[in-house]
């Protein structure tokens, strides 16, 4: 199906991934889709790398910058708001650390073109490099997401490779409830689901960061994520009749 309004770009939130971002950008440019890099207050080396990438590819790369670090969610939203204002219909969001399989970009965009009202959500297929503790820790979040949507539609809410339809995302962000840090990826999918969007789940290979840099802060991010699940749980309670009705209709 061809949708004339399907006009995608790629949004990459970047925080200090100077050793990985160059190769990620190079691989993405091959797909001929405009890139929006959002520098989330990186330190000097990261900022310089991003300046150089934008200067080398001025027609394909837009660089936006937060003077201060705001968190992954803040960076994704800055990129997506900008993309929406520029007239793009969809943003493929991919992380900067080289964990994701850029060869899957055409498959994700084809899915988004076919089901433009849905969120295309990657679910990870891991290789042997995944730390076991990370692998099993994800299950706690999966279970919370299934409870908070009263559905199994979101297969993995934490994968940093997905395509958002921009109009509903920007409208949701306008309402102001979204987590701005590492709680964003899950929060935004549950709330888009609550807003009536469907999810198209696609498998994609995920490795462990190519530059070995993880900014996941065990204590702070786990507290944020637990609070988010609790807030979503109460949000689910008053939506439960509507969510259950939707679930049964879908069956
Ligand atoms: N953690 C973190 N990432 C940010 C921030 N701002 C932007 N990002 C970007 O968000 C993406 C995800 O960050 P990662 O550190 O890879 O987090 P993750 O993939 O959940 O964790 P790992 O599995 O350890 O890689 C990357 O592209 C980061 O550069 C921030 O403040 N903190
Ligand atoms: Mg990562």
Automatic annotation (TrEMBL):
Keywords, sorted A to Z: Transferase
Glycosyltransferase 2-like domain ranges (all copies): 9-128
Gene Ontology terms for molecular function: transferase activity
GO biological process: protein N-linked glycosylation
Record-linked Gene3D superfamilies: Spore Coat Polysaccharide Biosynthesis Protein SpsA, Chain A
A Pfam short name: Glycos_transf_2
Keyword Transferase attached: yes
UniProt name for this protein: Glycosyltransferase
Annotated organism of origin: Janthinobacterium violaceinigrum
């Amino acid at each position: 199906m061809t949708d004339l309004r399907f006009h995608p770009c790629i949004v990459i939130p970047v925080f200090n991934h100077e050793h990985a971002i160059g190769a990620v950008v190079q691989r993405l440019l091959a797909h001929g889709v405009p890139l929006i890099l959002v520098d989330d207050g990186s330190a000097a080396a990261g900022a310089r790398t991003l300046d150089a990438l934008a200067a080398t590819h001025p027609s394909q790369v837009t660089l936006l910058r937060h003077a201060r670090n705001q968190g992954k969610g803040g960076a994704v939203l800055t990129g997506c708001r900008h993309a929406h204002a520029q007239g793009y219909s969809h943003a493929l969001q991919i992380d900067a650390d080289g964990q994701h399989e850029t060869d899957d970009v055409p498959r994700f965009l084809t899915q988004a073109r076919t089901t433009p009202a849905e969120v295309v959500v990657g679910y990870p297929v891991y290789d042997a490099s995944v730390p076991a503790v990370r692998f099993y820790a994800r299950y706690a979040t999966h279970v919370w997401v299934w409870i908070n949507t009263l559905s199994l539609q979101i297969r993995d809410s934490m994968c940093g490779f997905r395509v958002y339809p921009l109009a509903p995302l920007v409208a949701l962000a306008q309402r102001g409830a979204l987590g701005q840090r590492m709680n964003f990826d899950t929060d935004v999918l549950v709330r888009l689901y609550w807003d009536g969007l469907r999810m198209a789940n696609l498998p994609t290979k995920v490795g462990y960061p190519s530059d070995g840099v993880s900014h996941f802060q065990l204590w702070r991010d786990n507290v944020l994520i637990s609070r988010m699940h609790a807030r979503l749980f109460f949000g689910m309670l008053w939506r439960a009749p509507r969510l259950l009705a939707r679930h049964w209709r879908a069956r």
